[in-house]
Structure prediction request, 658 residues.
Amino acid sequence: MKPWQLIQKEICYRKTGFGIGLLCVAIAIASLTGALTLLRVYETRTSEILEERERETRAEMDRLENDYRRIMRDLGHNVMILHEDQSRSALRTVGHPDTFMPADYVYQLGHGGIETLNHLLPVLQQRVTWPEQEMDVILMGTPGQVPVFHLTRFLTEDGESYRNPIFRAIPEGKIEIGHAIATDLGLRPGDTITLMGESFEVHRVNRAQGSEEDIMLWCNLDVAQRWLDREDQINIIFALECICDIEGLGAITDEISAILPDVQVLEFSSRVIARGEARQRAEQESRRAIAAELAHRTQMSDELRGFATILVPVVLAASGLWIFFLILGNVRERESEIGILRAIGVKESVIAGIFLGKAIGMGLVGALIGYVAGVLAGALGGGGVAHGSVWGQFNLTLLAVALLVAVVLCAAAGWVPAMLAAQRDPADMLRGD
Amino acid sequence: MTEILKLERVSKTYRPPGRSAVAALDQIELSVAAGTFKVVCGHSGSGKSTLLLSAGGLQKPDAGHVLVKGTDVYRLSSEKRARFRAETMGYVFQQFHLIPYLNILENVMAPSLALTGDVAQLEQRARAMIKQFGVEQRLDHPPSELSIGERQRVALARALVNEPALLLADEPTGNLDERNSEIVIQHLRDFASRGGAVLMATHDMRIEADEKLLLENGRLELFAK
Ligand SMILES: Nc1ncnc2c1ncn2[C@@H]1O[C@H](COP(=O)(O)OP(=O)(O)O)[C@@H](O)[C@H]1O
Ligand SMILES: [Mg+2]
Prediction:
């Protein structure tokens, strides 16, 4: 016979005592694993919630950004880059800039690594009379937007054009007209018109702006250059100043003149600053909400942790004490057995091992029960474990911790009784009478 | 004849704290040879259990030597003494000290916990022993289901399963009726006749033995031969 067989048979004989011991260990381990699981579930849930909020905020910001872009588009660009020599008064009296720049300037700007500008729109603008209609219009020739190439987040994957341009290029053979022109001539998109002897399809009728934009006639830059005999020239670069950073306003002139020395910059951004500020406020507001949520959940989990760090050791200590008395009682009721084992020559160390082994066995089995109970309770108590991950809470590390703690607890609790059993004087137990 | 047990001037005085000292054994001289059945008589409290426990290496006397097969048992370390007990001695007590959760066969085989030899061989011997003591029908019963007499025979089988040189029996018939006492005594005699050394303690002066000694006031006198 081996000591472990003796342990096993004794356990089967005195089931109640062992059962109470198991319960003790199970409660202790359940409180430990339960607390750990609860905390982990709570923290996982927290990051899930925050991620969700973050996603919502980002979506909201994207929405605002789009709104903003739409507003910008509606309001038009808010920066105008002209040639240095362009007189401001002539701009008003003539009705268009009469000093020209190389069309290449816009590409220099686009590649110049500029931070404060976006959505560059090179234009060749000139007040002309539409000969076929005998009507004064402002001819706007543009190749469409030129990207600020390093702001890749706004660009398509090839980095060559905007994902969401605020101004789309005018397709070949088409023309876009201001609202006043459309009204005066009764034109609608799809109609065909004749301009300088060439025929175009009305691609789009712009919304009424109540400004000279209403008499603008947008066509391809090449076409305008050809008509106006201004090959490779433009006279305005419209741009959108980023209002993302309100404080950064004003840095723009310095930045541009570092790239293009002989230009001047006209800003008329105040109208959109308010929008930008509103957008910023909204962003700050939702950041604050996220921070508050995080703070709340962090505080909750700190409180939980604080509670657990008191409760778990108390439960562990209490069950350790209980196990100590259980094993001690077991030693008492087995005195006759210990005596005879000593008499037949069983070593003291084996006697101690029998009691310690029983305690450790109690620890291992109790730990398994407590582990399962604790993880289940923690996972369910943690509230709304997402994606049915109750099973995901069972993990080997936690099991190892549970087993280790239980074994240490039971070995510690069983140590003194086991030593007592081994060191009892066999004579006292055997004398009889 | 070979001397199995020898006590030389063995003394033991109990000094319970706060009470008067009891001189249980006073310079005891005793020897038991192989093949002899010796009985120590004495009334209750005369020191019989103390004598047997000392002889069996379970209670160190204050003075004197206990030699079993020439080995001074109290010179051995506690671990070695345990081993020595397992290999050379058998014990029977008035309370049978059967282990309640083991069946009869397991109880008889309990010494295998202390022995390193062949378990199958021990089991064979255990079964033979159980048969010899007439409890073979009860192999898988727990001790609680046996009569008092049967229990003592199981205890006896356990004491002899390791084929000891020395059997120490402390009032083995103390709880038994006359018929069962007869049976147990007869088994002890048989063991002696097969070459074992038996030292038995009893308060029953009528028991026949090779030598009877009287223990009184911690001293041993020859009582009958
Ligand atoms: N542990 C002890 N402490 C104090 N006195 C003891 C102890 N054990 C035995 N005695 C005393 O020693 C004497 C002998 O006891 P014991 O050997 O048990 O006698 P017996 O077996 O003949 O009845 C008794 O008087 C008993 O009270
Ligand atoms: Mg006695």
User: Anything to note?
Assistant: DSSP finds twelve helices and eleven strands in chain A. Residues 83 and 310 of chain A are 75 Å apart (CA to CA). Residues 270-333 of chain A form the longest helix (64 residues). Chain A has two domains: 3-59+283-432, 79-267.
